[in-house]
Design a protein that fits this description.
173 residues, mainly alpha, 6 helices
């Protein structure tokens, strides 16, 4: 009780609002901590992107500068009569020539692959048409699907035939 009596003059100097506010909060102002996403992943992504971009960009830029300075663009010249130019020799830029020679396929090869694709698709279409005609004729004539020939491997047939012959010899004796 003596403690309260000693504090009574001190408490009288505060107003009621100050006492209520102090009773509610005995710490500093109303500060809250904002919860935000971490920037660590974004920073790491930027670091990796910059590293790998520069890892690819610097050698490419140096290569392009080197090709253009030391090799230079192609110049037109007379072609000997017996010489047939390769497909990459038609490009002027040395980088384009390199890509056409070692990376891209020959345009003639691409054309022949396309022709092969067209031929195979045409064969498939013809086979489908013949099958459709056969089914139509079978329906028209009320035919049924006949037996078909299935080729067999001759070596297994020979082995079975030899085994059957040897069994027949044993039975005869």
């Amino acid at each position: 009780m003596t403690l309260l009596s000693k504090l009574q003059p001190l408490l009288k100097s505060f107003t009621a609002a100050q006492i209520n506010a102090g009773a509610l909060r005995k710490m500093s102002e109303h500060r809250t901590m904002r919860i935000v996403a971490s920037n660590w992943q974004w920073t790491k992504f930027k670091d990796y992107f910059h590293f790998y971009f520069m890892l690819g960009t610097i050698p490419c830029v140096l290569g392009v500068i080197g090709f253009n300075v030391f090799v230079g663009p192609a110049k037109l010249a007379e072609i000997p009569e017996d010489y047939v130019p390769k497909h990459w020799e038609y490009y002027r830029n040395p980088i384009t020539r390199f890509l056409a020679r070692y990376v891209c396929t020959n345009p003639q090869q691409e054309y022949e692959k396309y022709l092969s694709y067209i031929f195979i698709e045409n064969e498939k279409a013809q086979i489908r048409k013949i099958e459709k005609d056969v089914i139509a004729k079978m329906e028209e004539r009320n035919d049924y699907q006949s037996y078909y020939y299935r080729p067999i491997a001759a070596n297994y047939y020979r082995i079975i035939r030899e085994a059957a012959d040897s069994i027949a010899e044993i039975v005869e004796k």
